[in-house]
Amino acid sequence: MLQALRNAFRIPEVRNKLIFTGLVILVYRFIAHVPVLGVDKSALTSLLNSSQAGGLVGVLNLLSGGAVSNFSIIANGVYPYITASIIFQLLVPAIPALEAIQREPGGQEKIQRYTYYLAIPMAMLQSVAQINIFNLLGGVPIIPGFGSEWLLTLTVIASMTAGTMLAIWMGELITQDGLGNGISIIIFAGIVATAPTSFLQLMQNTTGAYRLYNIVMFILITLISLVVIILIQEGVRRIPVNYGKRVRGQKMYGGQSSYIPLKINPVGMIPLIFAQSMITFPAILVSLLPANDFTRGLTRTFGDQSGFWYWLIFFTLTVAFTFFYSDVMVQQQNLSENLQRQGGFIPGIRPGKRTQDYIQKVTRRVTVVGAVFLGVIAILPGVVGGLNSLFFGLQAVAGVNAAQVVTGSGLIIVVGVVIDTLRQLEAQMVMRNYDGFMR
């Protein structure tokens, strides 16, 4: 692998892509330390150190690349864009006009442009809601005068919205001119950057047997999760395909056998990112409503991110998004039409709609394993938190959770981004007759 890396840097095109990706990540990390105008750092520090805001800040940090801990101008991260993507993923199959646009030449680019437009009001909404949630959880305004001073309020909303669009643009730059999926790499960089700080916090907040327990738990969770993630991500179900013989001129084509590889987890970490985005939405929504016992309860439940109902909803959302997104992917690929066009067929299954229904059925059956796996990974911090309470008492809940140093979803993102980037790098190397990374 080291030799392959050296070969990659010898090729100007690949070297430029790697350097460009690294520079964009470096600039993003620099911007993540530029705070929003008027932030009260003492109030922000007090909020971050409180046990109430740990879960919410962790999720928002994950999606913003660590910018929430500084309340940077990119504290919204790419969350508004993810929310806009979810909305269009739901609307396109439901609205015939949007589905027709998507099927047109260049239609996917139009839908993508509409997603960018929708991300702007979503960023403005999240800017207001995030500040209100932090004010409620911390008990002290993190931006004194926000909401009462109109010039300060407009400046903060404008800067945070611009920061969101800047983060999205930087992710797109990586996708176009760098290596890998830009949005995923932005999130990946935030996870890697914040992991050492989270581990040090785990050590500082625990002592004695509880510290040793958390160290062992962290090592076990990381190793077991990595092995299982790789097995699930790379596992496939093969559907056999035969191709009929065709005569063109004096040559005969076809007659071979092949297979369609259906992944156990065909959608990677996308459902987890979607579920994590949606699970914060109730807290964001109620923060815009007048304060009462009901809204405070919802804010604490989804802001603190604890309790049976929170983890049950999170698990359900993750499983539902896995099935939904895998169905969308199968429909968009049009495997039955492509097979019929190429003269291929699945033995015992009629071409056309029955083939599509069969592929859909097998995909859903295989996806059960991937969906439950992602759901378990999603609620792993809740399970570990329950074990902490069982073994060390309720006071352990206030400590840092070993499963939240690098969350299971964070590990999936890390593994998925690394594998995807290595495959793209391998493709670049194979095009130039070098041995690739993946053997």
What is the compact description of this entry?
By secondary structure, the chain is mainly alpha-helical.
Can you tell me about this structure?
This protein has 439 residues and is mostly helical. It has one domain: Orthogonal Bundle (Preprotein translocase SecY subunit), CATH 1.10.3370. 70% of the residues lie in helices and 5% in strands. The protein contains 18 helices and 5 strands. The strands form 2 sheets. The protein has a 3-stranded antiparallel beta sheet, sandwiched between helices. A hairpin with a 2-residue loop joins strand 2 and strand 3. The longest helix is centred in the N-terminal third of the chain and has 32 residues. It is globular, with a radius of gyration of 24 Å. The protein starts with a helix and ends in an 8-residue tail after the last helix.
